[in-house]
Specification:
alpha/beta; single chain; Rossmann fold; six-stranded mixed beta sheet; six-stranded parallel beta sheet; binds 2'-monophosphoadenosine-5'-diphosphate
Length: 270
């Protein structure tokens, strides 16, 4: 019997997940269906329960439901627990397993697709909201020499420093604290790009051969990527690779098989 999966969010029309998972299923010969599921803003749980009752096997969860999915899960992976957000649900009997594959997707895109090692590098993570929180543990697992978290509201970055320091070298502060420092990998996890804005960065934060990575994506380069290019950065990436890699990680959790991502990323970029 065909197993059914979906991505649940609000809005959901724009989601590329059905296209990505259909490509994975075709490539791996897995007999699955995958749809986009619109949940009313105050009906996440009932929408998910209805999907489960129809025999649904798992869900990807997107904006604005990642925190509700975290609370709804009966079991959590360590990375989802630390992220306090769930982007993947797997249903098995009475168990609702919550995982967060966003950070794994990011580090795979950087280290494997872009071939830029994180190990031993100085990494700057901009932002201290849900998107930033989800990628800290996977970044630290790659053992950067230092991870600096900068945020407009410094208290939020400092709280993340306190929480994650047991996993590696983390420091935190506001953007002005970055004056005089430079980084090999600069990741924008703020939502500023959505407003065509960017954090207030001091000049000189990009090291030679730095990578500027925006977790957002759009048809045009984001404000942050334009800024990085204007400041001489040659390695620029938006969040398309991360999107496909987090999907591959979810697919692997559900089906026990890891799809190839290269062609899917290239297709989406076209
Ligand atoms: P998400 O789930 O996308 O991370 P969020 O939890 O609302 O969304 O977090 C948004 C992040 O983007 C925060 O770190 C926010 O900074 P504050 O904590 O100071 O609000 C950051 N952000 C949004 N717009 C920004 C801007 N124009 N400049 C700098 N940071 C911005």
């Amino acid at each position: 019997m065909t197993d059914c999966y979906a991505v649940v969010g609000n809005p959901i029309n724009h989601s590329k997940s059905p296209q990505i998972h259909k490509a994975f299923a075709c490539q791996t010969g897995q007999d699955i269906c995958y749809e986009a599921l619109l949940a009313p803003l105050d009906h996440f749980e009932s929408t998910v329960n209805a999907f489960r009752q129809k025999g649904g096997k798992g869900l990807n969860v997107t904006v604005p439901f990642k925190l509700e999915a975290y609370q709804f899960s009966t079991n959590l992976t360590e990375r989802a627990d630390l992220a306090q957000a769930v982007n993947t649900l797997k249903f098995e009997d009475d168990i609702i397993l919550g995982d967060n594959t966003d950070g794994a997707g990011l580090v795979r895109d950087i280290a494997i697709n872009l071939k830029i090692p994180i190990t031993g590098k100085r990494v700057l993570l901009m932002g201290a909201g849900g998107a930033a929180r989800g990628v800290i543990l996977p970044l630290l697992q790659h053992q950067p020499v230092e991870l600096v978290i900068a945020n407009r509201t410094p208290q939020k970055a400092l709280a993340l420093q306190t929480q994650f320091s047991v996993y590696g070298q983390v420091t935190a502060g506001e953007y002005t604290c970055l004056a005089g420092e430079c980084f090999d990998v600069v990741i924008n996890a703020t939502s500023a790009s959505l407003d065509n804005d960017l954090p207030d960065l001091p000049v000189g934060i990009f090291a030679n051969n730095a990578l500027a990575y925006d977790m957002m994506y759009s048809s045009e380069p984001t404000c942050f990527l334009k800024y990085a290019a204007q400041h001489g950065v040659r390695y620029l990436a938006d969040g398309i690779g991360m999107l496909v890699e987090q999907a591959a990680e979810s697919f692997n959790l559900w089906r026990g098989i890891r799809p190839e991502t290269k062609a899917v990323i290239a297709d989406l970029k076209r």
